[in-house]
Design brief:
The protein has 315 residues and is an alpha/beta fold. The protein is built from 8 helices and 18 strands.
């Protein structure tokens, strides 16, 4: 059995869960590569990536290259003498990096490839109303998420599951897949499957303000899936207009109730404890939201201090 010397590459919390599992299974991680520090928030304070925080806590050898083709970085990477690299939620690697270790570079992706290649696979699986998803390990090539697959693990998605809940479950499933992949590589038992392309493949496009906006002309089920698929981050949003005021509002949680009505699409109905938005085939019962300049709150908390007229509308 070959001893592995691993370089791990990743940035967000999702990657931390995988790195932690690798270390707890007594694999040697000779280096960790993560994003460069960036200013964030209103104060523009320097923010470390979740992986950097973890690496510092565990005294791991840390590199934060700005340019992955920089000669100094490549020299530092080579000097680690790794024979395997693992990538989890990082960035596209140049060929000179992914070809460096003798045993290759594999990636863990949070979908059942070839579906949902791209930046936001967890979100889009829920937004599109999928009932199952999973994780896949594959050897990196020169395109994004297209390499030869090593293994995949599948899980169901419940009709009430948010992206946040699924994210946490896929960390556990992904950890299992990475450890099993490491054992296959150690024992020289890897059998890969080439990904096949077709027009039916769904893509996990990068999330932006436009595709996170609620379109109230869509069916209630589609809107409900968008809300839970973007909760808690980056969150769906809409405009709420009442009299001469208009707010950009984030909606984190809602229930969809099928019910016939004669209300115009987007009209808002409130009571002391309830806020409903009329959609094509029923109502969205909003349960958690955030108005500009305020913290996230329950609908009941909002209605304790705010009232809406009969003409209030969600746009």
């Amino acid at each position: 059995m070959e001893k592995l010397r691993i370089v791990f590459m990743g940035t967000p919390e999702f990657a931390v869960g995988i790195l932690d599992t690798i270390l707890k299974n007594n694999y040697e991680v000779v280096g960790v590569i993560t994003a460069a520090d960036k200013p964030a928030g209103r104060g523009q304070k320097i923010k470390y990536s979740a992986v950097k925080e973890y690496a510092l806590e565990h005294n791991l050898n840390l590199l934060q290259p700005i340019n992955l083709k920089d000669e100094t970085f490549l020299s530092d990477l080579k000097s680690l003498n790794a024979n395997l690299q693992i990538v989890v939620a990082f960035r596209m690697l140049p060929e000179v990096v992914w070809k460096m270790p003798r045993l290759g570079t594999f990636n863990l992706h949070a979908s059942l490839l070839p579906n949902y290649r791209g930046a936001a696979p967890i979100n889009w699986a829920i937004i599109n109303g999928e009932t199952k998803t999973g994780v896949t390990t594959f050897f990196i090539d020169d395109k994004i998420d297209t390499g030869a697959m090593i293994m995949s693990k599948e899980t169901s998605i419940s009709k009430i599951e948010s992206a946040g809940k699924l994210h946490d479950r896929l960390i556990l499933l992904g950890s299992e897949a990475v450890i099993e992949t490491l054992k296959l590589i150690q024992n020289n038992n890897v059998v890969t499957t080439i990904q096949t392309d077709s027009e039916k493949i769904k893509t996990a496009h990068k999330l932006n303000k436009e595709n996170c906006k609620i379109d109230f002309n869509k069916s209630g089920e589609e809107i409900y899936n968008l809300i839970r698929g973007l909760s808690p981050y980056p969150s769906s949003w809409c405009l709420i207009k009442d009299a001469n005021e208009e707010w950009n509002v984030k909606i984190y949680e809602a229930n969809f109730v099928i019910e016939s009505h004669n209300n115009s699409i987007g009209s808002i109905i409130t009571s002391k404890k309830e806020m409903k938005i009329s959609v094509e085939n029923g109502f969205l019962e909003v349960t958690s939201l955030q108005f500009p300049g305020k913290k996230r709150m329950s609908c009941i908390e909002l209605l304790n201090g705010m009232s809406f007229s009969e003409d209030a509308k969600a746009l």
